[in-house]
Design brief:
By secondary structure, this protein is of the alpha/beta class. The chain has a single domain (3-210, 257-285), classed as Alpha-Beta Barrel (TIM Barrel), CATH 3.20.20.220. It has ten helices and nine strands. The protein has helices spanning 3-7, 27-38, 56-69, 85-97, 127-137, 158-170, 184-196, 213-223, 229-264, 278-285; strands spanning 13-18, 45-47, 74-79, 102-106, 142-147, 175-178, 203-204, 206-207, 269-273. It has a nine-stranded parallel beta sheet with strand order 7-6-5-4-3-2-1-9-8. Strand 2, helix 3 (56-69) and strand 3 (74-79) form a beta-alpha-beta unit. It is globular and about 55 Å long.
């Protein structure tokens, strides 16, 4: 079932994002985590893969397993950078054969140290190109796209970045999921500005419970999100006083407050970047809906 059709009910929801393990030896533990979080009855679950499509095959196997064995409505991440049309078509055909009805269309990031000419297909350079490509090949497939409340790191400015979001949606995207953020005003302002330029499709906020100070500092550096100074100071104090467990408690409590405020403020639901940490997500969602 397409996610956009499930969104039409208007019921508040959570959705989850999983990260395929790099080593297949870790798959039993990964699927145990999935089984634990499947009990939350998420509206859908998305599955990412590495830079340049480095774990694309694993993503296909995992989304099929989540769909068939765990009863989750799944959405596979798909990037176009470094890919050929034929390979992308095979992947999309395989998803359809596996009963997966949704794709998150992304440009993607090149692998580390990739040359400037890395993108193999010069006609699929942007997520908007990929959204149109998916729509042409599989018109019945649901398509999500990414949005950036704090502006994409490569964008010239807020207006240009928002125009690209509109293009992605106009080219076939059904809804947007935002990059993570820690100040809800970023999201509410982003939605307001989107509506002002004619974007009416759902914009789902993405949130991440901080479980490690070192990990979150690396993540925000990569994705261009900002960690509010006051919150960072609290996390640092928690680490000094109580170590990793204290950081996770603080991070989960912050994410739960953030999610509640988003839902109360009109967000259709919240998309949780799980980092494959089941207990942190269970604690976050407890009493939320």
């Amino acid at each position: 079932m397409r996610i956009i059709d499930k969104l039409s009910t208007g019921k508040k929801f959570i959705s989850l994002e999983f990260f395929p393990p790099k080593d297949k030896k870790e798959w039993p533990t990964f699927f145990k985590t999935v089984g634990s979080l499947a009990k939350l009855d998420p509206l859908f679950a998305s599955v990412t893969y590495g830079a340049g499509g480095s774990t694309k095959g694993d993503t296909l196997d995992i989304v099929a397993t989540l769909q068939k064995e765990h009863g989750l409505e799944t959405m596979a991440h798909l990037t176009c950078i470094g890919s050929y049309r034929g390979d992308l078509q095979k992947f999309l055909d395989s998803l359809a054969s596996a009963g997966v009805d949704n794709v998150l269309a992304l440009r993607g990031d090149p692998p580390k140290d990739a040359p400037p000419e890395f993108s193999a297909c010069r006609t699929l350079l942007h997520a908007s190109d990929l959204a149109a490509f998916i729509k042409e090949l599989h018109p019945s497939m649901g398509i999500g796209v990414a949005g950036y409340p704090e502006v994409h790191p490569e964008a010239a400015g807020r207006e240009e970045d928002l125009a690209f979001l509109k293009l992605k949606l106009d080219q076939g995207g059904d809804f947007a999921i935002t990059q993570l953020f820690f100040d809800n005003e970023h999201y509410f302002d982003f939605v307001r500005r989107a509506r002002e330029i004619g974007i009416e499709k759902p914009i789902i906020p993405g949130i991440l419970p901080v479980v490690s100070l070192k990990v979150i500092q690396r993540i925000v550096t990569l994705c261009g999100a900002s960690l509010p100074p006051a919150y960072q100071a609290q996390l640092e104090e928690a680490e000094r006083a109580g170590g990793a467990a204290a950081v996770e408690r603080l991070g989960v409590e912050f994410a739960q407050r953030q999610a509640r405020e988003l839902l109360d403020g009109g967000a259709p639901g919240v998309h949780i970047y799980t980092l494959n940490r089941d207990q942190a997500v269970l604690n976050l969602v407890d009493g939320l809906l």
